[in-house]
Write a structure and sequence with these properties.
Elements lengths: L14 E4 L2 H10 L10 H6 L11 H6 L7 H5 L7 E10 L8 E14 L4 E12 L2 E13 L6
């Protein structure tokens, strides 16, 4: 089923989530962050930070806290079994810390197809802010396979 390009510019509702120290420590350890400012509060404060640093890609994990994260694709009629991760990039504006309550909202920025419509691509920017101050823009590409189209 082709993705209607008129969805470009549509936005999801905002949601908020808080970065919890325990989750941050686990993520930092799992991803091999060598700087103790990611796992040790005293080390973070000694380095001049107000709390533990949020590792770069952890914002993607926090985005998954959205209770309606699958609604966008469901509203498009996309079968979740037909999606693939097509790419991801991060643009940072400011540092985020443990204890921050962050606001997320997502906008569709592009839709295109390849392989004669067998693959539809949806590009989305998720904007992350803290008290109105931009923290990061997370760009993700979702690939939707059309099992009926010739590949």
């Amino acid at each position: 089923m082709p993705i209607d390009p008129t969805i470009v510019g549509t936005r999801t509702p905002e949601f908020q989530t808080t970065a919890e120290r325990g989750r941050l420590r686990s993520f930092a350890q799992a991803t091999g962050q060598p700087d103790p400012a990611y796992t040790d509060l005293d080390a973070a404060r000694l380095a001049g930070y107000r709390d533990l640093l949020i590792p770069a890609t952890f914002l993607f994990c926090l985005e998954m806290d959205n209770p309606d994260r699958h609604r966008f694709l469901a509203d498009l009629g996309v079968d979740m079994r037909a999606i693939l991760h097509g790419g991801q990039r991060f643009h940072y504006h400011a540092q985020a810390y443990a204890g921050d309550t962050l606001t997320f909202w997502t906008e569709v920025t592009d839709v295109y197809d390849k392989k004669g419509g067998a693959l539809d691509f949806i590009v989305r920017d998720t904007h992350v802010s803290r008290d109105g101050t931009p923290i990061a823009t997370l760009t993700s590409t979702i690939v939707v396979r059309d099992p009926k189209a010739a590949a």
